[in-house]
Amino acid sequence: MRRSELKDKVVKRRQNTNEVDKDKPKKETDNSNETNRNVEPKYGPLPSIPHQRVFARGVMILATLAVVYFTSKSDKETMLARQKEQVQGRGHNVDCSPDYLKDLNAFPGCVPEKCGRYVSDRLVTEVEADLLLDIGRRGLALGSAEGGAAILDLHSGALSKGKHFVNIYSLNNTDQLFSVQDFATYRVVSHSVLYLGS
């Protein structure tokens, strides 16, 4: 009988300890569930639509990108004139570069004292532009440039030919190359550009 009594005791003991252990966590979890049910979520209700958080984050990212794109673009660009617009004269001042300011201090009176951007359709007329184009074509036909841009300076007569510069007025058969009207047009345009800022 001893064995049967022992078995009953052991079984009873195990049942008692299991019941006690099982009862304690149940009570704790029941209490925690009750507190969770009574507490409202801090940031509103949980999402009811699948992937609502991902969608909301995507919308916020796109909205932020749109705001940054449209606000940063307007600060950097200033439109002086449109291509189809006829402008009599429009400009604005800009800060001069430090190198230019050094030159201005070193050579007073030789360079313009203001820096800026200027747009005008009346600076050079269409007829003057055609005449200057014709002058350039006739002058550059006598020279050539190797590996770079060809240069023609009517004021000094410098013309790029090969790797060197030559005086266009000392070349043969250039007496009839430019007319008096060509030089008058060049003078008018260069003076209008020179006195543009004043």
UniProtKB/TrEMBL annotation:
It comes from the Eukaryota. Residues 1-46 are annotated as: Disordered. Residues 19-30 have a biased composition (Basic and acidic residues). InterPro entries: OGFOD3. This is Uncharacterized protein. GO terms for cellular component: membrane.
